[in-house]
Write a structure and sequence with these properties.
With 215 residues, the chain is an all-alpha fold. The protein contains 6 helices and no strands. Helix content is 42%, strand content 0%. The protein starts with 17 loop residues before the first helix and ends in a 15-residue tail after the last helix. 20% of the residues are buried.
Amino acid sequence: MSFDPQQPNNGRPMPPNYSQASGPQQPYTSQPGTGRSGPRSYGSAQPGYGRPGHGHPQPGYGQPGCVGPPPVGNPALFDSQMLPEAAYGPGSDRFWRVGEQERSAAMWAHLGTLIFGFMPLVMFLVKKDESPFVREHSRQGLNAMITNAIISSAAAFVLGILGFILALVTFGLGIFIVYGAVIVPIVYAVLYVIAAVAANRGEGYRFPLVFDFVK
């Protein structure tokens, strides 16, 4: 590189002429493997977000392989008419697969009947849209409670009349037949305990001798 400043009329030196010293410029050569000449421009097609070929496809909700939130529950389980026979009796815990909290709630729906009398109704109103297991147990207990009240009242009325008639014939001894109406609540109390044990095990229970008032 030569430095040959030219002296203009004003006497100040001029900058050197680099274009002459550097020599001829080399043209752009073709890039290896591209088959194109010239520099690689920023506008060339690159795989990016939203374009095919970028990374690996990720599973999303509603697609196979998606790890999303589990479903809230099967709506068919909230319909007692659609429950299969496998939902009741020994071994039905494999059908329900419920936790300790639901088991306790269903158990107290039956035991509460012996203490408060209306516990199945409260549990049914509170849990009927939350837990199919508690809903079915409280529904069964509610039907048993209504049936027990009807049969016990009818038995007391019939046996009361019959006892009065027998008392006139047997000099008052026939009145003791009225106490036979107590047998009905005792039978249902035993059924409540059996249902509570089944609920604590996570099994479904179907009350015998009940009218299916609540579906």
